[in-house]
Structures are given as structure tokens and as C-alpha cells.
Amino acid sequence: MNHSPVEGFSKLSKQRKIDWLIKEYLNDDRSYEQILQQYWNNDDTLQKLHEEFSENTISNFYMPYGIAPNFLIDGKLLALPMAVEESSVVAAASKAAKFWIDKGGFKTTIINTKKLGHTHFILDVEPHKLQHFFNFKLKKKLFEATEEITKNMRNRGGGILNIRLIDKTADMENYFQLKASFDTVDSMGANFINSCLEQFGKTLKEEVSKEETFTQEEKDSLQIVMNILSNFTPDCIVRAEVSCKIEDLNDDSGITNEEFATKFKRAVTIAEIEPFRATTHNKGIMNGVDAVVIATGNDFRATEACAHAYAAKDGKYSSLTHCTIDNGIFRFWIDLPISVGVVGGLTNLHPLVKFSLALLGKPSAQELMSILAVSGLAQNFAALRSLVTTGIQKGHMKMHLLNILNQLGATEEEKNHFVNYFKDKTVSHHEVINEFNHLRNK
Questions:
Q1: What is the pLDDT, as a whole number, of residue 420?
Q2: Which ranges of the chain have pLDDT less than 50?
Q3: pTM for the whole structure
Q4: Residues annotated catalytic, as ranges
């Protein structure tokens, strides 16, 4: 089918957007309009609020919002909000939380909270000459020029921590960076950082144009390419860990504590040395992290990008979690680079985000970092525990069973039958179909 481009789509009303889409792409089938409308909120004010979070909005896309209870984190008992559509994520997190609650729970340490941003620029000048200019003139001017922007942040205990000139001419001709580090306290700080960086670009241009040691040709060569924060924050990092005596592991899978600990450690080591395994291993970690990130109104794309970049920081993609067995002590931990906020953005607007933060005791940004690292560690522990004992499918497919039955249009009575049928069996799609057909043909 050939379609026609549309002019001024963003200026159309919501109804006219829907009318155009149904006519142009959906063969004028008005049943699709009902699908969109059934996800609108009955409260017009709340619906309008949701629509204004983004652009060209025609409906809301719902995700399940679940709770993983019994998380003992640094001595506090918490219930974690998780927005996630994948079966078994909330169940796995809850199971891990329950496993560790009587073994001291999860312990966390904030290692650093530094965030980064860069002004990327081109300047055809000798690096030593530019460095002298930066050290004795430019750096001071950059701090002065951003005083008004940073005033409120400095009053809250944050601001610009440092600015450095980075010589990247070995990688690209005449390429330099102004690399700045920031503390944004309880906000994620993206807008704050970018505002500072854009001012850096303006100040750099002004100061270069006035610098007497630069020739006119050197001044004319300046090009501010871009001013932008980095979502790679290797110095904004939190550690979460669990540990206990091997004799206290008490796994109920039928293998000894010693075998469980040994197999578990080997599974982590495989993820440390094998990128194919590490990718799936870390994806499971992010199942737990992202679910809480979304529930608390933070940016899960930034969280993902940062975590995976950090996993490859040593030149090979590797596990985010680590495990040791020393002197009879089993220890499992994660170092997670993560930048999140509890003020600004959706945190002040989305009702469920407000609920999530209230549920967590209105945490600071650092406390939320700890909660997210724990969520990821718990998810990974649960997955590895299944992998080295019963296998991943037994628990996962039991949670997926209802999805399969809903696709088949099963009644509540039939669903109850299948729950009992698979009580002592591993769920498989093939077996569900066979039993469903048998049940319907009785």
C-alpha cells in the first residue's frame, strides 16, 4: 500500500491524528479507535498530564506495576515498585529478597556520585599553547561564566566539581574537549549539566577570540562541535552485596551448600570471561534495575547505556556482578554505575512515580542508587540460582503460563486446571497446547 506524507501532524488534535492514522494505515477500521480510547484515563486532567509528557500522543501504553517485598537494605525493610512486562521478574526479585532477609540482607556503599559532560571542539593550535591558555585564563573564566547557572545547585551542595582540557588530537585532527565533572545532588541533572556546557561553548568562543597569543588563523579555526552530558558515568557508582557462611546458604534445590556455592561462582566467572554469556547475564541484571528505574520516573535508556559501557570498560564485555568464596564465606556483589534523580522531571508530575518514591520512604538520589543496585543484584542472584540448580525454564515458564493461556482464550476454570496440572511438571508451550486441546475435546 502506498501512503502519503502528512504536513503539520503535530498541530492536529488528538482525534484528527487518530482519524488520519486509521484512514491512512489501518484500512479505515474504526475498531482500532476503541483500542486506543480504552487506555485513556477517565480523569481528563490526568489524561492531559500524561499526553504532555511526550509529543503526538494518541493513547497511553500500560505496563504492569508490581511490588517485590521483603528487601532488607542497609537495615531498612523495603518493598520495591517494579514496572515491567516480563514474566517472573518481580517473582524472582521477591524470592531473592526473601532468601537473604535472614542472612543480613543487602549492604550498599556509594563509591562516588560524579557525573560528566563535555564541550567538544576543533582548534588548529599547538596543544601545549592551548593548555597554557586553559590553565592561566580559560578555566577561571568558565567557572565565572556559569556562576548564575550553578547558584541554586551550589546552595544545595552540588555544582561543577572540576574542568579539564583533554587533548584528543591523536584520535582526530585538532580535536579537544573541555571535560567537566558535576555533582547534581538529588536531581539527575541533565538539563543543569547541558546548560553549563552550552555556556562553556560560548565562553570558549569569546575567550579564544580575545586571546593575544593566538594568531587570527588559529582563532578562525575554532569550531564548537557540541556541548553535551555523557551518559557514561563510571565515577557515579554504587556497590551492593550479600554474603554469608556457606553453611548458611541453605538452598532448597537438593544439592549441598558447597556444590551450590561452587557452581554459582563458576557461573559468575563464565559471565566474566565469556561475552556471549555476559550479555544475557547483564540483561537479567537490568531486568531488575530498569523495572525500578521506570517505576521511579527515571531514564532507563541512560541506565542501560551506562551499565553496558561500564561492562566493556576494560576492553572486553564482561559481567557486572562478581563472586568470591574465601574461608568459607560466600560473597556476591555488583558495582553499578548509575545516574538517577528524585526531584525534577516525572518525579514531580507522574502520580505513580510519586507513589513509588513515597513507598520507598522518599529516598535521596544516593539512596535510590543503592535500591537500584540491590534490585539488579537480587535479580541476578535469582537467575543464577535457578540456572545452576533446577534450570531457568521451570520458574520462568510457570510465570509465562498465564500469557500462553490468555492467548488461547482460556476460561478461569481452565486456568485453574493448568495451574494444578503443572504443579509438579515443567511448563512448555508444546505441553500447554496439547493439554489445552485435550481439555477442549473432552
A1: 77
A2: none
A3: 0.88
A4: 86, 283, 299, 396
